[in-house]
Amino acid sequence: MSENDHPHAPKKTKTTAPVSAFRKSLGNEKGLVNSWNEWDTLEEIIVGIADKAVIPPKEPAFEMKVKDSGKIHMLEGTGYRTEQSIKMANDQLNYFVELLEGEGVVVRRPDVVDFNVPVKTPDWEVPRMNTSACPRDLLLTLGNEVIEATMSWRSRFFEYRPYRGILKDYMKRDPCMLWTCAPKPLMADNLYRSDYPTDYSAKNKELVRNYIYLTSEEEPIFDAADIMRFGKDIFVHMGFTTNEFGFEWLRRHCASRGMRAHMLHFPDDLCPFHCDATFVPLRPYLALENPARPMEPFERRIFEENDWKLITAAQPNTMEMPALSQCSPWLCMNVLSLSEKVIFCEETEKEMMNLFNDYGFDTIPVPFRNVFEFGGSFHCVTTDIRRRGKKQSYFKALDAQEAAAQ
C-alpha cells in the first residue's frame, strides 16, 4: 500500500487559482478590432475633435512644414486656436459623425485634453503641444492590432493620451485585440538635421531625390499616416515623418504577423509629410495618385505587375488653403472609404467627385474646409477600428515570389 493509499493519509484536494475581479470583467467580443485595408465596409471608427487645440510651437519638423505651405507666420503662434475656429471645426466634425452613424457606423471620440501646456523631457522641451483632431497620424490598425506610432514632432510626443481610454476599452472587450506601442523616440537634437535647407533650393531637391530628409536615422520614427494598408501588404511613405529605421521596425513587426512591408518614395515632393494626400488606395486593384508627386518608377512596377490601376487625381478646387492650415491643397485626395463603392469627399471638390463617379463610386459630399486648419481632412481625422473583411493578398506576383523562395 502506498503512502497516499493509507486510510489515515490526508486527502489531496484539487486547487485552482481564484479568478480576479479584473479577469471576470473582461469581455468576449472577438473581432471587435479588425481592419486590414482602406476600403472594406466600415463598421467602427475613431473620429478626432478640435477641442483645446493649439498652434504647434516652433521646432525643427513644424518649421519645415509651415515654410513649405507658405505659412511661416504660424511660427509666431503662442497658444490656443481661436474659439471660433474650434467651434467651426467641431461643427463639421460632428456633422460628419452624424453621417457615419446614419450609415450604421459606430463612432468613438477621444477625451478632451488641454494641449496648451509645456512638455519637458531630459532631452528637450516645448511650450505646448498640438491637437487630437487627427487620430490617423498616431494610430495604425493592422487586423486585430492597434499600434501607437512613435510620432516625429516633439509637440506630438504625448498625443496618445486622449485615446488611451478608448484603447483600454477595446482591449477589455475584445480578448483577441493586441495593443502595441512602437519604441518611443528620445527626439534629441541629433534626430533632426540642423543644416537641412528650408528654402527649397537645388540642394533641397538633390537631398530629397537621394532620400535624405530632415530627420536622421538616429532612432526609428514613423507617423501612422505614412502607412497605407492593402491586406497582407502595407506601403510606407518615406519622408520627413518616417525614416528607414522606422520602416525597418515596421517591416520586422509585419513579418512576425505574416505580412509584407514596402517603401514608397515620391522624389518631386520636396516636403514629404504623410501619404494620404499623395497615394490613396480606393478598392482592390484601384488607387489614386498625385500628378504633382509621381512615385519612383521601380516602386510603381509593383502595382503594375500585380494588376493595379493607378488613376490620376483631379486638380484641387482651389490652391488657397485656410489661413492657419499648414496642409497642402492636395487634401482633395484625403478621402475616407465607407466601402468599396462609397467615398466621403469635401463638398467643394466637384472634379474629384466626378472622377470617382466615372469609376463607379457613389460619393457623399461633406463640408469640411473648417477642419483643414487642424491638420487634415477625412482620412486624417479618423482611424478605422473595424471593417468587414479579412486579411488577404492583392499582390499575386509577390505571393508567387514568396512561394518560390521557400
TrEMBL record:
Which pathway or pathways does this protein act in?
Amine and polyamine biosynthesis; creatine biosynthesis; creatine from L-arginine and glycine: step 1/2
GO cellular component assignments: mitochondrial intermembrane space
EC annotation? 2.1.4.1
Task: Give the enzyme class.
Answer: transferase
Q: Name one GO molecular function term.
A: glycine amidinotransferase activity
**Which CDD domains is this protein grouped with?**
amidinotransferase_AGAT-like
Q: Which family does it belong to?
A: Belongs to the amidinotransferase family.
Q: What is this protein called?
A: Glycine amidinotransferase, mitochondrial
Q: Which organism is it from?
A: Guillardia theta (strain CCMP2712)
